[in-house]
Fold this protein.
Amino acid sequence: MTEEILTSVREGVLTITIDRPRARNAMTLAAARAIAAALDRLDDDDELRVGILTGAGGHFCAGMDLKGFLRGERPSIEGRGFGGLTMKPPRKTLIAAVEGYALAGGFELVLACDLIVAAEDAQFGIPEVKRGLAATAGGLLRLPRQLPHRVALELALTGEMFPATRAHALGLVNRLAAPGQAVEEAHRLARVIAANGPLSVAASKRVVQESRDWPIEEMWARQAALTEHIFGSDDAREGSAAFAEKRPPVWRGR
């Protein structure tokens, strides 16, 4: 990892921390490459079940590092997008743990995550229009899918701040936390997910994420193609046996 990105593992949960607090964790190319590497580690390591993405020093990410942009650097990875994430999220569950500001590309990183935990005083926004730019790292594409249309359009056209409390009320944020406690609350959520069957979690994520675009006449067959293997797996038998024997299951991921 670059010194701009820190990683730690606890109870099968990989925490990825953007560590540029003096710049409100603005994204650089080096940080984007390190995040991409950490996400590959999340997907490739069977001992890791869930990832958490967060920022150091009381903020999530203020977007692209504008000093780097003026030098001709853009913090995107080909095929993976801004921050090594927005175009290619990991197969495993990724939770955004947000304190302070998540703005521009920082908000787009959040939108690329599967679940969002935010401090009650956190602020989101895509202010690109105020700088003569556009939120093309997923903001304009994902916001209308995750918020009511007119709310998403207002954010895109005004560039104004969007408080976490309103985001939670509209269903964008899963859980609110006391200021300074977003990562711990995200860990609590991650542990619940990590305790479940990994094959089941992965397939369930794919169906929920992909099915919105499925034709009605194909949706059952497409769901079966992604889930049928679960029912014949060792984990399915283990889950049933553990329930009958009143003990925690021991998942094998097969």
The first helix runs from residue 29 to 44.
